[in-house]
Specification:
Elements: E1 31-32, H1 44-53, H2 66-76, E2 83-86, H3 88-100, E3 106-110, H4 115-123, E4 127-131, H5 140-146, E5 151-157, H6 169-178, E6 184-188, H7 202-207, E7 211-216, E8 229-232, H8 235-244, H9 252-263, H10 265-288, E9 300-304, H11 308-320, E10 323-324, E11 326-327, E12 336-340, H12 344-361
Parallel strand pairs: 1-10, 3-4, 3-5, 5-6, 6-7
Antiparallel strand pairs: 2-8, 7-8, 9-12, 11-12
Helix pairs in contact: 1-9, 2-9, 3-4, 3-8, 5-6, 10-12
Amino acid sequence: MSVQIEPKSGILDISLYQGGASKVAGVENSVKLSSNENPFGSPEGAKEAFLRAAYNMHRYPNTDHASLRGAIGDIYNLDAERIICGVGSDEIITFLCQSYAGAGDEVVYTEHGFSMYKISALAAGATPVCVPERERVVDVDAILAACTDKTKLVFIANPANPTGTMIGTSEVARLAEGLPPQTLLVLDGAYAEYVDGFDGGAAFVEARDNVVMTRTFSKIYGLGGIRIGWGYGPKAIIDVLNRVRGPFNLSEPQLAAAEAAVRDTAWVEKCRADNARLRAWMAEALMEHGVPSDTSCTNFILARFRSQDEAEACDEFLKTNGLIVRRVAGYGLPNCLRITVGDESSCRRVAHTIGQFLEKTR
């Protein structure tokens, strides 16, 4: 008997997501600067809450995430009823594509945008549409020109990964206003906390019915290892997303740690300030070595080299010195390396090592 069991259209077009490397063969005590993690770790209160919750691992977690949603609402001054929590902001992106896009629909994202936009669109059976950026910055005119009556979702990261750039409020407003009536704008704010005074797009969600914001605990809160994210949107859209969300998608330790983390505002302020200081120092140090970068609004720098060969050779040299950064050729930036802003020692070490490499090769 011959059976041919095939996945639905689009699934086999998905390239497996490649995370940042964490080890170098033959090198001990390497420094990981490839995944934009918080070098200062997690807030102490989050660690303690996680450990306390572990004593109840035999119990099913709360299904409505009310306590965490309430904490997020308190800290960010948002309506908790319009918040949804997920396994990282990735899961919120998946819910959006699953709920609002399918066969015959289009999902628009920009050329250097987060790879999960395309992956989630294909998984839902929709057609991903890649739009050019302008000098590594989201181009609102190009997005609007790409939209059709088939466009159901538009994803932009603001600030963006892996470029580190962002567009201003007026440009976001122009984009939201110019979209077709059936199109939902998704503002991915994974790095929003690194921009002082920035709401990640919450004001647009409040003012309009075609905007959703996603956020994560993986970056400034240092909880990437336990995967928690959230979204904020119009009540009707959040209601739809909750209908496809698994009832127990987050565990009790996850929920407890995230609630403690979001309430530790002093931790966020300290990490933001330390990151800004070290980011500026590293960008200037690399520029002195002839390696430019755009002004970053995140916790990483996109270092631009003269060619793909030079970027790859520098990456190999860094690895031999126990420094792991991220190649981003898969994001359409073959001559660049994305370098997480680590602690002071790591930043000085990576800048010094890149300087050594360039002295030998230029």
